[in-house]
Specification:
The chain has 319 residues and is an alpha/beta fold. The protein contains 11 helices and 11 strands.
């Protein structure tokens, strides 16, 4: 192919790609969430999907594909057509922790996805049943040391698992892990007394906290939360502890860049809207959008290394 022919081919591809973005979207978009309805990520997804649909003038439908620590949803999106009509709102569970937690992961968090936008952070809190004798994290640790292997904690996602195991390792506790398919299930069993401890996302647990159905002992962030200003950080009793869950939107690998850029711009507009900010704040969600897809891609790579180190330090072995 001569120079003129190559130039014409490049120009034709550029015009074609731009035309795709200009006409996008022409139909409904599916936003896959790898956690159950009622989870913190699900609540955030529904708020963002509504705003995004209004801006794109096409419905954005939330599709919950829960299970296997977000692997079911991740595999589904990784295999989807990269045309911008299948999006993935997920967290550090699928893209930071799973590669270190599972030895036979059926997707690659970097190679199989197109980063579009980071949305923010969903803080977690350490909860117990109101009838549990401990009124503080120190009392919980003292109780656990006096009753080795008699307490259990719920673990429906990587943040719950890594946070709980890190506390166990640093404080020298013997508490049994009970895996759950979803955070609403875990919360239900905490309220019912089937498990005694649960590190849950503030978004899905805030209603129970405010209603007095659970007692919150500490938050996983290094500083108190705006939504729970009187609750101390875990670091106040476990020095150096700092853990939170990031949230972002991806698509399958190979999406056209103009479509990615358009989605990124529209998502940032949605997150910046005052009513959206207020709705997310009620969940305890803290917005922290990336400036562009490239910044988000770098963040994802950095978090993958960070969580791999956290899991190693917690002594968690890959399944």
């Amino acid at each position: 192919m001569n120079l003129i022919a190559r130039t014409l081919t490049v120009l034709a591809l550029a015009v074609s790609t731009a035309a795709i973005a200009q006409g996008y979207p022409t139909g409904p978009i599916t936003m896959v969430v790898p956690f159950a309805a009622g989870s913190g990520t699900d609540a955030v997804a529904r708020i963002v999907a509504k705003g995004l649909g209004e801006r794109l003038k096409q419905p954005v439908l939330v599709d919950n594909k829960a299970g296997a620590s977000a692997q079911i949803g991740a595999v589904y999106v990784a295999k989807a057509k990269p045309d911008g009509y299948t999006l993935f709102m997920t967290t550090n569970t699928s893209h930071s922790a799973n590669p270190a937690l599972f030895s036979n992961l059926k997707y690659d968090p970097v190679r199989d996805f197109t980063p579009i936008a980071r949305v923010g952070e969903l803080p977690f809190a350490l909860l117990v049943n109101p009838s549990f004798p401990a009124k503080s994290l120190k009392e919980l640790m003292d109780h656990a040391r006096a009753n080795p292997d008699k307490l259990s904690y719920a673990t429906p996602n990587s943040t719950s698992l890594v946070a709980s195991e890190t506390i166990k390792r640093i404080a020298g506790l013997q508490i049994l892990a009970v895996p759950y398919k979803s955070s609403p299930q875990a919360l239900t069993d905490l309220v019912g007394g089937q498990v005694q401890v649960y590190v849950g996302d503030v978004g899905s647990t805030m209603g129970m906290i405010k209603g007095g159905n659970v007692r919150v002992l500490a938050v996983t962030t290094k500083a108190p939360l705006k939504s729970l200003p009187n609750v101390p950080p875990i670091a106040s009793a476990v020095p150096g502890f700092d853990l939170t869950s990031w949230n972002g939107i991806f698509g399958p690998a190979g999406m056209p860049k103009p479509v990615v850029d358009k989605l990124n711009a529209e998502i940032l507009h949605v997150i910046a809207e005052k009513d959206v900010q207020e709705q997310l704040a009620q969940l305890g969600f803290e917005t922290w959008p990336s400036k562009n897809p490239e910044e988000f891609a770098k963040y994802v790579a950095d978090q993958l290394a960070h969580w791999t180190n956290l899991i190693k330090q917690a002594g968690i072995r890959a399944e």
